[in-house]
Design brief:
Layout: H1 2-31, H2 37-71, H3 77-104, H4 112-118, H5 121-135
Helix pairs in contact: 1-2, 1-3, 1-4, 2-3, 3-5
The chain binds protoporphyrin IX containing FE (HEM).
Length: 138
């Protein structure tokens, strides 16, 4: 079980690296002047590569979590609350994909300030999920 938990944590950390950095690229994309196509293309390429790289990692983080849950019969309200938050994170991840498509098609209208607040969502989720799984308050 400890090997599965080890891989679970490694993939979780890697997934969050992407969930933290991708919206930060969006902040920069939202600030690129309209005539700076080279900078826009460079940031778009970075975002596309990061999204493609971090998506299977997110799937593996969840897969190892489910393996722990069902393979070792973990129980408790903390696990249901945690899984609900993880479903929210998966939706956030998919939303990042849609925002990336908006930037690629030049139809993104959200301000860099909006993306700065958007960037804080995974931070709050990480804090609550870690408390749930380590402290198991209920
Ligand atoms: C559906 C997705 C997930 C499921 C079903 C799941 C399930 C589990 C289970 C059953 C454990 C073992 C708990 C224990 O040994 O006490 C665990 C450990 C852990 N999970 Fe997840 N997890 C999921 C996603 C995540 C995510 C997104 C995070 C991000 C913060 C996360 C962070 C952790 C951490 C830090 C541990 C180690 C806790 C410890 O050793 O005390 N998990 N997970």
């Amino acid at each position: 079980m400890l090997w599965i938990k080890t891989f679970h944590i490694v993939f979780v950390v890697s997934w969050f690296a992407g969930l933290f950095y991708l919206p930060r690229i969006f902040v920069n994309l939202a600030m690129v002047p309209a005539d700076s196509t080279a900078e826009r293309d460079r940031l778009l390429l970075m975002a596309r590569k990061l999204y493609r790289f971090v998506t299977p990692i997110g799937v593996l983080a969840v897969a190892f979590g489910l393996w722990l849950w069902f393979g070792y019969d973990f129980k408790g309200g903390w696990l249901h609350a945690k899984t609900t938050l993880v479903i929210g994170l998966a939706a956030y991840h998919a939303w990042c994909g849609m925002l990336l498509a908006e930037f690629a098609s030049g139809t993104s209208i959200k301000s860099h300030l909006w993306f700065r607040f958007f960037n804080e969502v995974p931070v709050i989720a990480l804090l609550i999920i870690t408390i749930l799984v380590v402290v198991k308050p209920f």
